[in-house]
Structure formats: C-alpha cells, structure tokens
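Sample pair:
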Amino acid sequence: MESTAAVALESPTPILDRLAPVPPPDKRAARRKMILGLAIGAAMGPAIDVAVWRSPFLWRQIAVPFFQWLDMPWTGPRVLSLVLSLLAAVVAALCIHEAGHVVGGLSTGFRFLSVRLGPLVIERSGRISWYWGPGALTSGMASMSAARRDRLRQRAAVFVLGGPAANLLSGGLALAILPALSLPAGLFLTASAVALILAAIPYQLQIGLTDGGRLWLLWRNRAPCRRWLALLKLQAESREGVLTEARWAEYLAEAVAVRDSTPETVLAHAFACSAALHKRRDREAGEHLETCLRYLSCVPPAQREGVISDVAVYLARRRKRADLAAQWLADLRTAANPLMRLRAEAAVLEARGDIVGASRKLDEYEASLLALPKGNPQREMLLRTLPGWRAELKAPSDHTAA
C-alpha cells in the first residue's frame, strides 16, 4: 500500500494511471445547494408577503382574489384545479424564461442550438428528446453559440438578461392588463416572481451558474468571465471548423488560466487536451486530462462520461495501455450515452491489435453518430475525427491517435 502511494506521488498523472481514486460526485455540494435553496425560499416568502401587504395595488390584484378563493368550499374538483393551475403556472414561467434567453441571444447574433424545458429538449433541427439529468424537473436551459467574436461580453449580457427580463415583462403585463387576477393568473404571477428572484441570485448549480452568477462574472470582467467568453468562442469556432492555431492559443490561454470546482474548468482542459493531441504533445495532453479528472466531482453525469471516454481513448491510442484503458472502459458499462462507450471500445480493440474488431466498432460508432440530427454539435465534431482514425487503422505501422 505504501509503495503504491509513493508511486502515485511520483506520477504526474496518478488518477489517469489508476494510482489514485477517481473523485466521486460531490454529494456534499448537492446538500449545500439544497440548504441554500431552502434558505432562499424561506426568505422569499416573507419578502413577497411584505410587498403585497404594503402595496394597495398588489393587495387588490393578488391578495383579495386569493382570500376570496380560499373562502370557497374545498372540493375534489377545486383541489384538482389548484394542482393543475400551479403546474401550468410553473411550466408557463419556465417556458417564458427560456424563450427570453433565446430571443435575447438571437437578437445579438448568437446561434440557436437547443432549448430544454424541464425534461423536454427541442433541438435546432426540430428533433425532440428527453433529459433526465440534474435539474430535469426544476429548471430549463437555452443552449446557444456565439456566431461572431465582436463585443461578445456585451452581447452575452443581453443573452443572459433575456430570461429574467421575459419573466419581469410577462408578470408586469399580467398585472397591468387584468383588472383582477384569477387563481391561475395569480399563480402565474407568483411563479414568474420566484423564477426572476432565483435567476437573479448568483450561485453555482450542478448544471452551471445561475443568470445572476453569469451577470456577476460579466460585470466584474475578471479571469472567470474571460474563461467563459473564451469557451464560448472555442465552442462556436470549433463547431464551424474555422478555428485557426493562433486563435486556439489565444482562447486556450484564457480558458485554462483559472482552476476551480466548476464544469468550466473541466471543459477548458478538455479543449486544451484536444489541442495538445493535435500537436502530438502526448505528455501535455495527459496532464490536461489529469486536471479534468481532478475536478470530475463537480460536473454533471454526461460530462463525466465524456471525460472518462476521452481518457480511455487517450490511454489506448497514445500510450498503448490497453490494460488501463480497459479499466476506464469498465466505468462506462452503464453509461447513459452509448457513443462514449463505443469509441472507447474501438480504441481498446485497436490497442490490443484487433484491427478488424476496432474497424467494426468504428462502423457501429459512426452509425450511431449519423443517427443524431444534423446540426447537433457533438455529431459534427466527432464525425470530423473519424477519417483520420480510420486511416490509421489501415496503416498499423503508423499507429498514433488522431
């Protein structure tokens, strides 16, 4: 045991080499966020209550209809009506919030990729899928990429502000237009207010920063802000295949300048690993993967699977360590995304000398990629790596990974 610990200390990549344990998902962080959420909810209730009691307009519009509704007899249909109205109000506020992000992004030159409304995901191509990861039932997300580089900080601020602004505008219109709020309208107004307040509070969720957190980064314009903007540029230009070597160096320098317990750290070093592999700097690529693994506890499951797949492929194709790669592949046995497992399996077969088996596995991998809708960022980026990989399988004397 002592000798293993000594070797782990000497190795520059102990987690990668399976000499140190893989950081598990941070359950304590999830508990802290739950406690923070309860505290925010406990503080919001009295704040809204005081605002309504002290405003004659809000008292007339919200409190009076609510108390009238409470005085009515409680029956089964009324309880069902309350539940359905509450559900509809939450869904409407969520949809309006994400639509605000999309409109804000499109109006400032961002390219729409997908929008998630609870568990429902609508992609650019029109394809509909389901998401059951963190925040599936309590949040949404608008995914957009920067189509151009100019004034990105200001345009990103408009994109982020679009969601809270949409909730504020829709709630204000409901108050201004309706002479007296019905129960559904009152619940919608409440859901909009809650969505606005939660979005405005700057804190880190497992799925990323809140809108308030993003705006705080943009306002301070310090290293974490520059990292996020650099990642937006890297994602946008790498998807389009127009990223030059000079821009890679410029963006990566800003992206890896900060290391903290956020998914952005892992994403930044994944990009840096890709750049190092492209330049045949295998040792540097391994060190970037080690950094990804070191902060793996703070990323959502899909990103975690992607990193583990990258590690298996790197060990199999660059270090020719089929034994280590197979151990990482075993961690993908129950992966939600089969693509990550298929590419790792192909790499392990190649490292073992089974070129025919690796080629067949790549065919299966390619078929799964092609089944994804056109325009899917993951589809396009991974498809671009296949021709080089196949060419190296046909030339076993030059087995270095693409």
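The longest helix spans residues 76-107.
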